[in-house]
Structure prediction request, 672 residues.
Amino acid sequence: MPNQLSSQKSPYLLQHAKNPVWWYPWCSQAFEAARQEEKPVFLSIGYSTCHWCHVMARESFEDEEIARILNRAFISIKVDREERPDIDAVYMSVCQAMTGSGGWPLTILMTPEQKPFYAGTYLPKRSRYGTLGLTELLQKTEQLWATQRERLCHTGDEIAAWLITPQAPSGAEPSRELIRRGVSELSARFDPLWGGFGPAPKFPAPHNLLFLMRFAALEQNGNALQMAVKTLEAMARGGIYDQIGGGFSRYSTDERWLIPHFEKMLYDNALLIHAYTEAFRLTEETRFLSVVRETVSYVLRELTDEKGGFFCGQDADSDGIEGKYYAFTPEEIVSVLGSDDGAAFCRFFGITEEGNFEGKNIPNLLEQSGTKDRRMRALCEKLYAYRLHRVSLHLDDKILTSWNGLMTAALAKASFFCRENAWLEAAEKAARFALMDLSDSRGRLYVRHRDGEAAGTGHLEDYAFQAWALLELYQVTWKVDYLDRAVHLAEQIIRWFPDREQGGFYLYADDAEQLISRPKEAWDGALPSGNSVAALVFSLLFDLTGKEIWHTEQEQLLRYLAGEAKAHPSGHCFALLAMCRAVYPSVRLLCVCAEERMPEEVKEALYRHSQPALTVLLLTPANRDRLARTAPFTKHYPIPEKGAVYYLCRENACSAPSRDLQALLASLRPPG
Prediction:
């Protein structure tokens, strides 16, 4: 019999709709039932492509014995962390404080007033090897709730009080010294043999690499560039990268990037497209361009909705076995490709009889010095077609506003530097989808869209990531509509999310559901924090519009982020990347054109002379009035009768107007 999850849209909740556990979604009715029945609440948080969430579901939530205990003694609530990052952030902070670590599935026991008294992650059904089992935890809690309820409630009160205790203001001045400390910390943890930072498991952390490449460009620092390039090269050769179908898995379980945790997430691939595009821009190495092309192809082929939005990701498991979809034996390769091509493929991609993963093989290029040639690419296409006939991977087909912003931004940037108009069309289609299907009539954002329904009050990262996407689109299309919409989203950030006393912005809005605490995130974890991306957005808006409000907001937010980052700057790399725009000279180019569109020769010059600190505006007869409202300083510039005139401003000084764009841009190149 279906429980109360059967009417939900979340793929994760629907995976549990036929559990014998009588699950509720997060709702007021669940907590009212807990109060009425005087029961504690069992809260389980996960996501649909999480391997260990599947393991705990098979062992415990599909188990009749566990279900009997939960249904008898608890009110059970399931939450999709991707739909409710606010709930996840509150209770993950509790788990990290109580246990020193976190992860998913997240397991919380709490009072009907939402005050937690126990936190953990995956639990086996029964205790083993010193690890507490779920059965024993539930039985002990049932006993304590009956005999020592006041003790449990007191613990919940203490934890809830800790959650809402205001932190002392920790603002600091953004500085190059703080940025350089971030680079030094990354350098101290850098693995010179295999790339990446720290021991296994290794995560791509593409925003760390983007920061290093930005620092390298600004300070001409070869060591920073080498750390980023080495890591990007190693990941592209390892098994974390799908050599056959493109795209990256979540993380590597070993130091060599060989054995991944196989789930593929949209946000990882979006940020890695950014990183590999930037590496291609800086080095002009075509191997990075190949990775961008294959990863974009994967996303457009397997993670894209017909209306233009992007799905969340694909599971690690098929037939209940992690990695089964991706692993091969030599015999299987030969049966598909034939003896000659099969043998060549096995030699090239390290496919052996003994295998590198549970008796089978994950294709990789770790022992290869070369890159895939035309023959190997053709063989990969054959194996990809063959692999499609395997048991398909679960697709989490909900569309998250925040992650869609990351992918839209990545496609916009990659389309320019990889000269792929089709990618720009995909980015613009995604932006239209966000406007039509992820926004309400007031322009407020929803959290997600699935099965024809948008839901959830947008969080800080929804607004910040979408605004970043629109600004990236403006920088490659110069359509004022994108700039205007980015301004609108940024205005909503400062309207609905600010902490004007301590600085920074809260994760959820003033008018959203209020939880037992209101998190404010600065740490750049698997994704950049909403505050870090908002800082970048405010910086870009100040450069593009010249309006003082964005300079003021940028300064206040960067002071907050600098204070949060000073103890451990390398944990705030996207914030440091945003900080670079404030503490290093920025450059603004205004192109005043008689034509209605950016001339192709101008695009070519910008491609040849791109700079990380450069923002570009386009003023034409067609957009003059509208641009003047958004960027008032532009109304003072005369439009030529023909051709274009260029105005370059840097370090608060503007050069004389010029018709020689090549010379202006060439002057930006650092010596050597």
Notes: The two ends are 71 Å apart (CA to CA). DSSP finds 25 helices and 19 strands in the chain. The first helix runs from residue 11 to 15.
